[in-house]
Amino acid sequence: MSLFDSLVVATIPFVPRPFIRHFADPYIAGEELADAVRVVKLLNREGAKATVDVLGEAVTNLDEAARAADSYLPVLDAIERERLDANISIKPTQLGLALDYDACRENFLRVIERVRMYDSFLRIDMEDSPYTTLTLDLVQDLRREYGKIGAVLQAYMRRSMSDLRERIIPDKINLRLCKGIYIEPSEIAFRDFDVVRRNYVRLLRIALEAGVYVGIATHDELLVWEAFTLIDELGLDREQYEFQMLLGVRPDLRRQIISEGHRMRVYVPFGEDWYAYSARRLKENPKVAGYVLKDILGLRH
């Protein structure tokens, strides 16, 4: 990280919201459900599926958690009404996992009742390490109520291989595999970029060989190439996996993957909490933060 990028990240809390919004626009559908519907329709026309996320996480009380759960019900209604090729993703702390496991479970069950009505799918997102075990417990718990619930593993976590073998593979849980974005200590997570890449490929191979449906979530072109190689080597049908990407990130690569006949799903976040999401993304990507500020100030040539 350059000194300039480091300084930009350090000053993010003091940056005016319009500056952050300049960064956010390509990566967030908007503040309203109608914005998300519009973006998903465009993606569907392009040949991509979507997963919709209502922005917000780490609520501070159970009333907020209950309201967050309720905010997903009109999303599911809109997906059905507009005949969108989309499902939903939810962060468990948004529904109260950090406050009370049982209350969080009840909030998810209210959402799942609507998911079941439409025979849809729910992805429970993975957050930082204090919630890894609880999140996987929640996935396995809720799958006893409704089977179409997926999990997420992060390739930089040292425990992910055992979680794959002990939790995901035995129940053939639909899996999103990503690198991981949270800052974790070295005893918990691999810190070397190449090691994380190698572990990603190893996890992907073992999951696919075991017959797990994997959402190959990456913008790393090398990992996309490795995935192509594995898909060919294992002789997989297009219905046995999909690629996944964030809205606004590498649309060129997204379109190439689609053009080669692979399933693609794009993560589409929307909501009033766009500022916190965007600020966190900038902190996680200091080079992007520096790039955006240079662009705004006219310093980039």
Instruction: Note poorly predicted spans.
Output: none
Helix content: 40-55%
C-alpha Rg (nearest Å): 19 Å
Q: Which overall shape is indicated by the principal axes computed on the Cα atoms?
A: globular
CATH topology label of the largest domain:
TIM Barrel
Overall structural class, as computed from helix and strand content, comes to alpha/beta
Outline the biggest β-sheet.
8 strands, parallel, barrel
Q: Beta-strand level of the residues, as a percent range?
A: 5-15%
Please provide the count of β strands: 8
Write up this protein.
With 301 residues, this protein is of the alpha/beta class. The protein folds into two domains: 1-28 and 281-301, no CATH class; 32-270, TIM Barrel, CATH 3.20.20.220. Helices cover 51% and strands 14% of the residues. The chain contains 13 helices and eight strands. It has helices at 3-10, 17-24, 33-46, 62-71, 73-81, 101-117, 132-143, 160-171, 193-209, 221-234, 251-259, 274-284, 286-297, and strands spanning 49-54, 86-90, 122-124, 149-154, 175-178, 214-217, 241-246, 264-270. It has an eight-stranded parallel beta barrel, surrounded by six helices. Helix 8 (160-171) links the parallel strand 4 (149-154) and strand 5 (175-178). Helix 2 (17-24) crosses helix 12. It is globular, with a radius of gyration of 19 Å. The protein starts with a helix and ends with a helix. The model has no long low-confidence stretch (mean pLDDT 90).
Task: Give the structure's gist in a few sentences.
This protein is an alpha/beta fold. 51% of the residues lie in helices and 14% in strands. It has two domains: 1-28 and 281-301, no CATH class; 32-270, TIM Barrel (Alpha-Beta Barrel).
